[in-house]
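Fold Annotation — chain and its backbone

Fields — amino acid sequence, structure tokens

___
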Amino acid sequence: MTGRVAAVNLGVVTEAEWAGDPSGRSGIDKRPADGPVPIRFAGLAGDFIGERAHHGGPDQAVYTYAEEDAGWWAAELGRSLRPGAFGENLTTYAVDVTGAVIGERWAVGTALLEVTKPRTPCTTFAGYWGMPDLIKRFTVRAAPGAYLRVLREGEVGAGDPVEVVDRPAHGVTIGHVFRATTLEPELLPALLDVPQLPEPVRAKVRRRLGLASA
């Protein structure tokens, strides 16, 4: 499968009461970059991250959201949503983000990325959109976007191809993990056989299944 990058978005500093960080600053407001952007192991160069206790890090270095899913929300809400409105670094086109398999590897520009986990909606996201019920609605929609780790640093720009170069055989997708950890716990057992899931997610699954303590 080959899609493309519709936009590369970088966070700007936003000070607001709804910001989750104790400093009152958030990087959820991401704006399209004018040209190619370096992707480092820690994330995109120039991207501001506010609440580092829950955002950023190797397993959440890059967040991507599908242009098609953004279009669904725009129609649902009756308002335009520019690239970066979901706090995503990469807005993609013709990439099945929800159907991406955990551990799937993408060649994006000159970088190599690996799908790690779905995004969990938070109060900062709801505050940014000014929608108190956004967490509930986002969870029911179950098109959460995907976090990726950086396996090879490189550069990415709007229009670059997104090519799936490897896909694990276990078949557990971003959508499956999101539904399992939110509204469909009966799906949790399948996550035990996914070695590419970040350890904090695996530990959460074990706890919820009563298999081990963290």
Remarks:
- The mean pLDDT is 93.
